[in-house]
User: Which sequence fits this backbone?
């Protein structure tokens, strides 16, 4: 073992039926460093983390932990006892308990505990980490970012020497991310080694010291942050020179003539989810976007269009015809498709196969008495697996065993299969690697050029600027601006989001 | 040479592991276990004799026939219970009480106001249809509580579980009407000239209908989808409440069929004893079929097989003179064994052990 390393993985192998998930992967984490683990979806990042924390048994290789020598973990609990803590993207705390309870639950140090002492201890830890929350507050009432920090505080309090953060920032907004980074730097000062899994390149370069890149279940290399410029990192992850980002921008159709048919039109549309009534229309072949901070009502707006929430008012016309859209099925019958923001909660049907997940929407649209034959279903599934390049062992693999990006592609395939006129994509690229992101952006533009109308929502403004020809800006549940053509620049968008006064 | 020889082996190994992971393995293994046990303990268990019944018609008898006979009721219930479990992630514990109600309705229509009529007051088919409607209404009551009022299935159905038998008694003013018409006894007994018990044929009809419904409609996909992820299902145009509701109504239909068989067996009814504890056997059948009681994916064939295996177990215990009071305790022990064996953790372990064994075997063989 090297002198200052706290964790060394050597020659790790892991395979699942039909898939080699890790092949001869090495990974070294040093004391007091923030180490980014990068790779495309399905490159093996999650698997590596899960092997390291004992969620999966490894097929081969060794794990060395400082002061503990070679170890084999059979459960995350064992890994935790050896000082390896993980904070997952989806927070795995108990929302109905208080902050302090969450920090001490399941640690089994004593049978009896004093609530007073527990709250006081928790308060001390939180204070020392600069997390501004009361120990007695119920966790559910805290923002996601604070919940994540509580999870980190819990890990830190358990004397971890290795902290794994698996995409902690994907549901945070910018100021929250900044707070998280501050916390990470503090921990680094204390000598904790942090493994940081993320898809945001900016964040990697902001906070990390070192990068390990995986590709196709293999190790590409370990680099210090200075020796690996951004473009190279991306090309290492993709295994090829990255198609120039400017490429798609150029190929983006100039904002189309406004003579195309209006596909969808809503007046005074409102739902029960706290947005103000709004007007909206989209023409065929147009890509528009809703932007705004988290909670500004951008998702709620498109959910109202799709009838996903309770629609309380509004008149809707599809292709000039007055229609009532009160529930998703109405929207689907009018050629609208909606890819939801929260893939796990609203998108996938976890235990069902990739095939069933792909045909679901079209099957429902088709009707109760017209099930697709098995052959037809497989045909559909294979078509979209190929078209979207979904990495899956077979059409019968349960979707939950796919990586996040591949799940997203399956859901996208589901909606493309319904051949919609109007496709709503709410954060289709969240938690997805750069390569797939570019693929999806290209796909959106291609679909639009074929006449499909697309609404594209993303937390990353540059991504929206790249794809959308019209941006609707939202703040506090209200539409505050509409930007087109020349106005589509980062500064204008930011200014409009922020309040528009700063010119 | 070595390439050629390794290929079939690995294929065989794959086949073995896919069999081990197949859902049907649990009920089949249980069935084999029971069969082997009976073969060793007393092979006469499997004897089937042809005799005549009191009416002079030829009938088959033997323990296996009993299993087919009584297992059929359970299998019919298991169909509905499987759907309810898959869609709502919970079970209906009021099916026994439901059978009492539907049986009581059946008798009420057949006998009218007299308790021992000379002739039937209504055709059996009419009586059965009325009983189906009533049972489906009670199913709808349960379904509405679960789907629309979001009450936990066990709690929601506890209402009818408690009240059902009283309602059944009340329908007939607490009298015990007796049907003297001979044709009525065919449904739970034998049709003259056919030596196999009628419930088996009724069950077969139910299986075929179920198969057709699952094949020619999207019920299976919808039910599983709702059971796994309600929110996603809604966003894909499904109406999860409606689908849950429908499964309870369908279970009501199954209950009515069981009610017919049960009442036909006796030509009368005993409100407090009829179909007692049958809900537990029906739920067990679903579990034994390897279906998650928390809902989601289901395998109907496995549930049906599970029902017959449960009956196999019950009959085996009767055969060995287990007191009927003690029956449930014995059953519980066997059930614990089965359920533990079928738990994913244990199965994972078993299949890895098996893999180890086969690879050792292969390496031992290879030098020769």
Assistant:
């Amino acid at each position: 073992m090297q002198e200052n390393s706290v964790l060394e993985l050597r020659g790790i192998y892991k395979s699942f039926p039909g898939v080699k998930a890790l092949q001869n992967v090495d990974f070294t984490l040093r004391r007091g460093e923030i180490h980014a683990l990068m790779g495309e979806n399905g490159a093996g990042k999650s698997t590596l983390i899960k092997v390291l924390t004992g969620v999966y048994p490894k097929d081969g290789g060794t794990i060395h932990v400082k002061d503990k020598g070679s170890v084999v973990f059979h459960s995350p609990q064992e890994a935790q006892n050896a000082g390896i803590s993980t904070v997952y993207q989806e927070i795995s705390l108990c929302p109905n308990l208080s902050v302090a309870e969450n920090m001490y639950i399941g640690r089994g140090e004593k049978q009896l505990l004093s609530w007073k002492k527990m709250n006081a201890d928790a308060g001390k830890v939180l204070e020392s980490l600069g997390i501004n929350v009361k120990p007695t507050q119920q966790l559910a009432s805290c923002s996601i970012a604070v919940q994540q920090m509580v999870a980190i505080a819990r890990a830190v309090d358990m004397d971890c020497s290795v902290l794994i953060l698996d995409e902690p920032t994907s549901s945070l907004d910018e100021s929250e991310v900044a707070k998280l980074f501050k916390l990470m730097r503090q921990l680094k000062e204390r000598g904790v080694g942090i493994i940081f899994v993320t898809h945001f390149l900016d964040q990697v370069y902001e906070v990390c010291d070192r990068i390990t890149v995986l590709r196709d279940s293999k190790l590409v290399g370990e680099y210090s942050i200075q020796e690996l410029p951004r473009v190279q990192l991306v090309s290492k992850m993709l295994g090829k020179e990255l198609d120039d980002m400017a490429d798609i921008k150029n190929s983006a159709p100039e904002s189309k003539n406004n003579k195309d048919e209006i596909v969808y039109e809503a007046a005074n549309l409102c739902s029960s989810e706290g947005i103000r009534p709004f007007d909206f229309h989209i023409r065929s072949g147009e890509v528009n976007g809703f932007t705004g901070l988290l909670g500004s009502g951008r998702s709620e707006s498109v959910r109202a269009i799709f009838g996903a929430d309770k629609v309380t008012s509004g008149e809707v016309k599809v292709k000039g015809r007055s229609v009532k859209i009160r529930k998703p099925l109405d929207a689907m019958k009018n050629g609208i498709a909606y890819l939801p923001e929260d893939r796990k909660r609203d998108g996938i049907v976890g235990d069902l196969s990739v095939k069933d997940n792909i045909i679901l929407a079209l099957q429902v649209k088709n009707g109760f008495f017209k099930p697709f034959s098995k052959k037809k279903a497989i045909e559909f599934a294979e078509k979209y697996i190929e078209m979207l390049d979904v990495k899956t062992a077979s059409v019968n693999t349960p979707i939950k065993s796919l990586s996040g990006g591949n799940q997203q592609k399956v859901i996208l395939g589901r909606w493309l299969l319904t051949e919609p006129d109007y496709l709503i994509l709410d954060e289709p690229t969240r938690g997805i690697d750069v390569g797939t992101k570019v693929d999806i952006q290209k796909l959106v533009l291609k679909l639009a050029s074929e006449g499909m109308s697309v609404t594209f929502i993303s937390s990353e403004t540059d991504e929206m600027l790249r794809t959308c020809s019209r941006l609707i800006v939202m703040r506090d549940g209200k539409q505050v601006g509409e930007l087109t053509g020349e106005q589509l620049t980062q500064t204008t968008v930011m200014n409009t989001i922020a309040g528009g006064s700063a010119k | 040479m070595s390439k050629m020889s390794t290929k079939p082996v690995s294929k065989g190994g794959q086949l073995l592991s896919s069999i081990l992971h197949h859902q049907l393995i649990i009920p089949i293994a249980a069935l084999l276990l029971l069969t082997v046990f009976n073969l060793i303990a007393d092979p006469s268990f499997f004897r089937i004799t042809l005799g005549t019944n009191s009416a002079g018609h030829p009938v088959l008898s033997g323990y296996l026939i009993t299993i087919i006979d009584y297992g059929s009721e359970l299998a019919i219930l298991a169909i509905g219970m499987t759907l309810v479990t898959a869609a709502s992630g919970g079970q209906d514990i009021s099916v026994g009480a439901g059978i009492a109600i539907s049986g009581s309705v059946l008798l009420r229509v057949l006998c009218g106001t007299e308790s021992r009529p000379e002739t039937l007051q209504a055709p059996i088919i009419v009586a059965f249809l009325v009983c189906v409607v009533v049972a489906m209404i009670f199913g709808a009551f349960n379904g509405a509580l679960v789907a629309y009022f979001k009450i936990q299935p066990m709690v929601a159905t506890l209402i009818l579980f408690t009240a059902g038998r009283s309602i059944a008694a009340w329908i007939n003013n607490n009298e015990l009407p007796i049907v003297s018409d001979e044709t009525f006894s065919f449904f739970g007994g034998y049709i003259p000239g056919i030596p196999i018990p009628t419930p088996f044929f009724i069950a077969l009809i139910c299986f075929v209908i179920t198969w057709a419904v699952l094949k020619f409609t999207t019920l299976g996909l919808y039910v599983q989808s709702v059971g796994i992820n309600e929110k996603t299902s809604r966003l894909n145009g499904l109406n999860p409440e409606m689908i849950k509701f429908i499964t309870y109504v369908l279970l009501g239909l199954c209950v009515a069929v069981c009610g017919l068989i049960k009442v036909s067996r006796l030509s009368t009814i005993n409100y407090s004893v009829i179909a007692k504890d049958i809900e537990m056997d029906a739920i067990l059948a679903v579990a034994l079929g390897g279906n998650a009681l928390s809902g989601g994916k289901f395998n109907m064939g496995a549930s049906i097989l599970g029902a017959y295996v449960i009956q196999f177990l019950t009959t085996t215990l009767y055969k060995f003179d287990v007191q009927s009071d003690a029956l449930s305790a014995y059953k519980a022990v066997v059930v614990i064994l089965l359920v533990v064996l079928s738990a994913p953790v244990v199965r994972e372990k078993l299949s890895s052990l098996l893999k180890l064994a086969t690879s050792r075997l292969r390496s031992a063989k290879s030098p020769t």
